[in-house]
Specification:
Layout lengths: L3 H10 L5 E4 L1 H14 L3 E6 L6 H10 L2 E4 L2 H9 L7 E3 L6 H9 L4 E4 L2 H10 L4 E5 L7 E3 L9 H13 L3 E6 L4 E3 L4 H17 L7 E3 L15 H16 L5 E4 L3 H4 L3 E11 L8 E5 L19 E3 L6 E7 L8 E11 L7 E5 L20 E4 L1
Parallel strand pairs: 1-18, 2-3, 2-11, 3-4, 5-6, 6-8, 8-10, 10-11, 13-15
Antiparallel strand pairs: 1-12, 7-9, 12-13, 12-17, 14-17, 15-16
Helix pairs in contact: 2-3, 2-9, 5-6, 6-7, 7-8, 8-9
Protein name: ornithine decarboxylase
Family: Belongs to the Orn/Lys/Arg decarboxylase class-II family.
Keywords: Lyase, Pyridoxal phosphate
Length: about 375
C-alpha cells in the first residue's frame, strides 16, 4: 500500500507521465526485519532489484553487503561507499576481463557453477574465494528460476575440487529457491543438498565455510506471504538439522523482499474499449506496460495490487494492457483484473509493490517511450 509519504509526494509534486516512487523508510524497515529474522546471516542486497543510488547509500549506512552481477553494479556499490569486502560477484556467467577488473577493484568473492568458470577465475583472480551454485527445483516460487544457473550437487563437488587444485579458496555453496518463494520448506531441500557437498569435500580435506542461501524472500502483492521472522525460524531449523552444531557462515541475498513493497508506480489510463458490442471484457490501456516497467507480468506471474480513486464503485473484469504497438504488451488477460466500471481515460491508478524489478527492466526507448522515471524519497 502506498505510504503517506508517497501520497504526499504525488499530491504536491504531480510528476508528469508514469513514474515509480520509492519510500526509503520502508527499505530501512525491511532491512531491520531481515537482521532480526536472521541475525547470524550477513545480508547481501541483490543490486539488480533496484540499483538507485539512494537505496545503495542507505544500505551501506545500515551495514549491508551487496550481491552484484556486473562490473557496473560493483562500481555503483563502491560509489555508494561500500568497501570491496562487502561485495560478491554473484553472476555465474562472467567475461574473464570483467573478473580481472573486479579483482583489481578488490572484490574477492565469486560465484561459479562449472569447471570452465573456475578456470577463468583462477586465471583472472588468483587466490580468490569461490562458491558453487547448486540447482534447486524452485517449487513454490511465483517466479521460478530456470536451469540457466547452477549445477547438480554431485558436479558442485567436482567444481569446488578443481577450484582447490587451481589455488583458489573453495569457500562454499550457494542456491536460489526461486523468486517470490512462499514455501517455507524450500530452503530445507536446498540446505540438505548443500550439506552433502560440505561432507563429501570434508572427507578430502577441503573444508567449506559458506552457505549462500540466495534470495527468494517475497514481498506482498495480492496474497499474504509469510513474515521475515517465519522464514528465519524455518531456515535456522533446517540449518540445525543438516549441519548440527557446525553451522557454517551464511549469507542471504534479498532483492524483492528488500525493496518491492517500498515502491509504487503512478500510471494513467490512456484508453478503455471493447472488441465487440457483445464483449463482456473491457480493455484498459495504461501508459506503462511490459516494456517500460512491468516485465514481471510475463505469463501473469506477478499480479500487482492496483488502487484507483474509484475503488468503491462496482468492478468488472478487464484486460490490462500497455501503450506500445506490440501485441505482447498485455499484462493480464488469462485472468482478467477487476477494475471499476467507472474507470475512464485520464484516471490515475497506483500499481503497488513495484519497487523491485521495474525501473531496471524498462526498455530504453521502445516505440519512443522513455524509461519509467524514478523518484526515491
Amino acid at each position: 500500500m502506498a505510504t503517506q509519504r508517497i501520497r504526499d509526494f504525488l499530491a504536491t509534486r504531480r510528476p508528469e507521465g508514469p513514474c515509480m516512487i520509492l519510500d526509503l523508510d520502508v527499505v530501512r524497515e525491511n532491512y531491520e526485519g531481515f537482521v532480526k529474522a536472521l541475525p547470524q546471516s550477513r545480508i547481501f542486497y541483490a543490486v539488480k532489484a533496484n540499483p538507485a543510488p539512494e537505496i545503495l547509500r542507505l544500505l551501506v549506512s545500515l551495514g549491508s553487503s551487496f550481491d552484484t552481477a556486473t562490473v557496473a553494479e560493483i562500481e555503483m556499490v563502491l560509489d555508494a561507499g561500500a568497501t570491496p569486502d562487502r561485495i560478491s560477484f554473484g553472476n555465474t556467467i562472467k567475461k574473464e576481463r570483467d573478473i580481472a577488473r573486479a579483482y583489481e577493484l578488490g572484490v574477492s568473492l565469486y560465484a561459479v557453477d562449472c569447471v570452465e568458470e573456475v578456470e577463468k577465475v583462477a586465471r583472472a583472480a588468483p587466490g580468490a574465494r569461490v562458491f558453487c551454485r547448486v540447482l534447486t527445483d524452485g517449487e513454490g516460487a511465483e517466479w521460478p528460476l530456470s536451469r540457466k544457473f547452477g549445477c547438480v550437487p554431485e558436479m558442485a563437488v567436482t567444481v569446488l575440487r578443481r577450484a582447490h587444485e587451481l589455488g583458489l579458496h573453495a569457500y562454499g555453496v550457494s542456491f536460489h529457491v526461486g523468486s517470490q518463494q512462499t514455501n517455507l520448506k524450500a530452503w530445507d531441500r536446498a540446505l540438505s543438498d548443500a550439506s552433502k557437498v560440505f561432507r563429501t569435500l570434508a572427507k578430502e580435506g577441503i573444508i567449506l565455510k559458506l552457505v549462500n542461501m540466495g534470495g527468494g524472500f517475497p514481498t506482498r502483492y495480492l496474497k499474504d506471504v509469510p513474515s521475515a521472522q517465519a522464514y528465519g525460524m524455518a531456515i535456522f531449523d533446517s540449518l540445525s538439522k543438516h549441519f548440527g552444531n557446525r553451522i557454517p557462515e551464511t549469507i542471504i541475498e534479498p532483492g524483492r523482499g528488500m525493496v518491492g513493497n517500498a515502491g509504487v508506480i503512478r500510471s494513467e489510463v490512456v484508453l478503455v474499449s471493447k472488441k465487440s458490442e457483445n464483449d463482456k471484457l473491457r480493455w484498459v490501456y495504461l501508459d506503462v506496460g511490459k516494456f517500460n516497467g512491468l516485465a514481471e507480468t510475463m505469463d501473469e506471474a506477478i499480479r500487482y495490487p492496483i488502487e484507483t480513486a474509484k475503488d468503491s464503485d462496482e468492478k468488472v473484469p478487464c484486460v490490462l494492457a500497455g501503450p506500445t504497438c506490440d501485441s505482447a504488451d498485455v499484462m493480464y488477460e488469462k485472468t482478467p483484473y477487476p477494475l471499476p466500471i467507472s474507470l475512464t481515460v485520464g484516471d490515475e491508478i497506483l500499481i503497488e509493490g513495484t519497487g523491485a524489478y521495474t525501473t531496471t527492466y524498462a526498455s530504453v526507448a521502445f516505440n519512443g517511450f522513455e524509461p519509467i522515471r524514478s523518484y526515491v524519497i
